[in-house]
Here is the input.
Amino acid sequence: VSVVVLAGGTGGARLARGMLDVVGPQNLVVVANTGDDVEIYGAHVSPDPDLVAFWLADLIDERGWGLEGDTFMVMDGLRALGVEVWFNLGDRDLALGIERLRRLREGQGLVAAHAELMDRLGVPGRVLAMSEDPVRTHVRAAGRWWPLQEFLIGRRGEGPIEGVRFDGADHARPAAEVLEAIGDAEAIVIGPSNPIISIGPILALPGMREALAGAGAPVVAVSPVVGGEIVKGPTAACMQWAGQECSAQGVAAVYEGVIDGIVADEPVQGLPVLQTGTLMSDAASRRMLADETLAFARALASR
Amino acid sequence: VSVVVLAGGTGGARLARGMLDVVGPQNLVVVANTGDDVEIYGAHVSPDPDLVAFWLADLIDERGWGLEGDTFMVMDGLRALGVEVWFNLGDRDLALGIERLRRLREGQGLVAAHAELMDRLGVPGRVLAMSEDPVRTHVRAAGRWWPLQEFLIGRRGEGPIEGVRFDGADHARPAAEVLEAIGDAEAIVIGPSNPIISIGPILALPGMREALAGAGAPVVAVSPVVGGEIVKGPTAACMQWAGQECSAQGVAAVYEGVIDGIVADEPVQGLPVLQTGTLMSDAASRRMLADETLAFARALASR
Here is the structure.
């Protein structure tokens, strides 16, 4: 077996962690959104790929981001110098980003830089940056364009959202390793991340929708709408901007032409649905949802 | 009064600290060598100006470099990623360098970036980067050229030295604030730093020797040779490369045409000498040496 999970932040990362339990490290490839990447503090910070990696390695801190037990000495040092620290980053997290930027400056590709650093961290499974090429998500709100991290942190992700763009996506290409993994996959799962700003940048890469549609494997999405609500992040405002209702039905509409089925805790019309509980509150529920999702995909494949 | 101290690393920094006690923060300007500067870890690290600043602010750690009580979480994080950490830097020190590089990248000049950050650290007196322009000292040993920090750390400063060059110095200019301070000074003191690789880059700036020779103030050097020995660093190997003996006499020869007198604990021929103890082992001896040096300079001025 070989399962590819497309992931943004927390929802996708949790599902990937469950899938790791189900299929094992040799059979899991996570394709992570790099549209949130930001260069700051002399570091290349990759929030989504790193979040997935920290989840896979059981290194995620209980605060929900960053490395477990990390310290914040450099941020304290910056504050002491009068810097307004809007983007908080732990010391070991910063070391990761500093070393990544050094590698990129030396000419190493983003996929290889991520992969080697994840190896050093002992991350099981493969986490692939979606593209070697830079893509930078921007959100328009309150009359101005915000780089995504600034929107999420500085503006706390508050809508209404007036625009979304993925700078660089037009000329970016899916990484070769990503296309290869999609071609070889037994199942492809779109994790329960924000369809517009987390999965959106992956799907916006030229050739990506075609690669997914043309893959031999079934493609299933897991809805991020749980009990009619969004667990985390500005998904509701994003769906509103996209002209879709914030429901599994709306999510299915965003993914139309890409997915063969959807996993949700509510009914969806017009495509195969696995209706099941989708809240991932602990290891058992993460594993359970991953297991059910994979079985659903396999069932779709055998039809 | 207004005293200008030219300084490299530890020796110059200690004397500057003593001079601060003697003349007070309003009357002290330290011109610091930036030939040791290095870009590393996404930071602009300025070893000599920072060492002086940390000494002036009583923030120097007892290990002899870096900020008192600083932690090393990021370096630990880099090592955990397999990085060979040849240049050790504390977390708050790193924050300083990260913020400095950010300012430089945004277009702020080196002198202003230093000055504002020193202000934030609460450093008394003024520490001026010698030039707005980059100068990078390289030392040749064992058949290859070493950037200075790599020579000092990777090679532990071991000679014999086969060459010294100050990349960029030909086109660098002394900072306007430096020339102004020299013009306004009552006394100019060359601190007991390495004459070749610490003070050398300052004197190599086009117009600097002329500015010192043409200043109304007397220029006196404090010999770094104490009890016939060098307290710290590769001064002996540097003097040998320069074809000078490692003595106050040799130091006077290196500074010929620039200084009006020398402070040393041994006899020197051919120019006015203040022979006195020059070991600065504590606050009292630093203040004493600074006080005597200033009195000597004043006596030279009144001749």
About this structure: Residues 283-301 of chain B form the longest helix (19 residues). The mean pLDDT of chain B is 96. The first strand of chain B starts at residue 3 and ends at 7.
